[in-house]
């Protein structure tokens, strides 16, 4: 999972076993492939738009004469927009349907991108980034749901994973494209506008592509439009499978409706409140690992450690590569290791690498040697974070809540997560300027230790437990008697 | 004639259910069990020896437990009594969350019987 990529991961999977005929071969499978490719442009855009400031920020900052604080605001405004986009995107997708929502989001991506590219002043850019953030957050909430709902149950996981990979891939693509543009065309004025403009291509591809994609069958069923749902299923399944799947989809649509049952008053139940606080803590600390300070400010960090801008922007690509490698490892580890072990190991490694970065800034004199040492520890941090805490936080959020309060509880946690993302983005540049690298990364190390203690004390184990069993145990331990 | 009970996920909720069962047995009526917890009641959680209708909370329309109960009472005209569990709440608790019991007492179309545990 990408550094700060709130999404609504759980589209219920069938708890009842439906014996279904094979998905089919040939046309329906091909059609599904096209749908997945088009929809994951949403993930790609998410990654590109969050990653592009890493590299675009320096020329942009020169152009507009930004201070450390206003640099932070340019970056963070997108995350604030995303917090709202993530929370309300799901609601819109339930009301309008997945397809229309994604189409609208593609439109917002296009408008937001154009607004950023043509921004006459910093204040305008900040506003345009907020709008772009709405689309980023909305895509994070809608695209995985759409993919999960249109994919056949046995392939659901792999389709959603594909979106995750596209998000991290989008960030890496932004790093590479920035490095290429900056090194070949760095002499051109306002080169950052071109870096941002690149995002227009996938946004248009998403808009045009989505026009030809069908609505989610599960959403159609939830609206009582069973005939249309069957028509869609017939496009993406063999005819026998399509008929057989209607029952499963109807069951799942009913389960989805249940997820919206619980709300604020249920937080009066002590064990439920405890779970929501744990979930919010997971989002809170995931962002305070500082993963996104690397994803947004990696190039600047390397510059301030002593590299030339042209070299720093290339060195920063390593962060993207290790992020992608980490997430790949993380996805594999998720099903092998107990959650608590993985979380605690992750936060311990994060604390160690942050400490090493902090020490490097003291021990190694500024210059290329310091910068390369910092980069080595940075990528190790990124790799350990993305291999553990990154994807695990999302998995955990999708499985700790009782089904009937999942929608509300996830909404709170995802909102906390994006807002912490924004706070880190906002205050990282001024912190580095005021306190230096040692104090800033020393602080991240300290926060990782606090996260370690918090999780060691509070986090329940959920691996290999079904939800009902987990709930019973947790309630027995923490409920009022 | 019938007795309704709102069962929350708490000791008061369990006490309310016990009292409502006793009440229904005394009156020789059925029981409308409105389950306000976050899990659906299974067979073995339903009190035996009575005619019980279980209503589980489900969907966004039931997000507010008070609305969920009032809607059920409106749909079941045969109900002439609502049993509720109540407890004293801390000042902080009152500041943060409203009281479901208080709102139900004020809005219920039928008389409300409240029960609380001894010494609480």
From TrEMBL, chain A:
Q: Which keywords fit this entry according to its UniProt record?
A: Cell membrane, Membrane, Transmembrane, Transmembrane helix, Transport
Where does this polypeptide localize? Cell membrane
Q: What is the topology of this protein in the membrane according to its UniProt annotation?
A: Multi-pass membrane protein
The main place the protein resides is: membrane
Q: Which domain of life is it from?
A: Bacteria
- List the transmembrane segments: 29-48, 68-90, 102-126, 132-153, 165-185, 191-212, 271-291, 311-334, 341-364, 370-396, 408-428, 434-457
Q: Does the keyword Transmembrane helix apply?
A: yes
Pfam families reported in the protein's UniProt record:
Sugar_tr
InterPro entries documented for this protein: MFS_dom (IPR020846), MFS_sugar_transport-like (IPR005828), MFS_trans_sf (IPR036259), Myo-inositol_Transporter (IPR050814), Sugar/inositol_transpt (IPR003663), Sugar_transporter_CS (IPR005829), XylE-like (IPR047984)
Q: Major facilitator superfamily (MFS) profile domain spans which residues?
A: 35-463
The family line of this record is:
Belongs to the major facilitator superfamily. Sugar transporter (TC 2.A.1.1) family.
Q: What is this protein called?
A: Sugar porter family MFS transporter
Record the organism. Answer: Brevibacterium permense
UniProtKB/TrEMBL annotation, chain B:
UniProt cross-references to CDD domains, sorted A to Z: USP-like
- Pfam families, per the entry: Usp
> What SUPFAM superfamilies would the database entry show?
Adenine nucleotide alpha hydrolases-like
Q: Which residues form the UspA domain?
A: 64-116
Lineage: superkingdom: Bacteria
InterPro entries assigned to the protein according to its UniProt record, in alphabetical order: Universal_stress_UspA, UspA
The text of the family note is: Belongs to the universal stress protein A family.
What protein does this entry describe? Universal stress protein
Q: What is the lineage of its organism?
A: Bacteria, Bacillati, Actinomycetota, Actinomycetes, Micrococcales
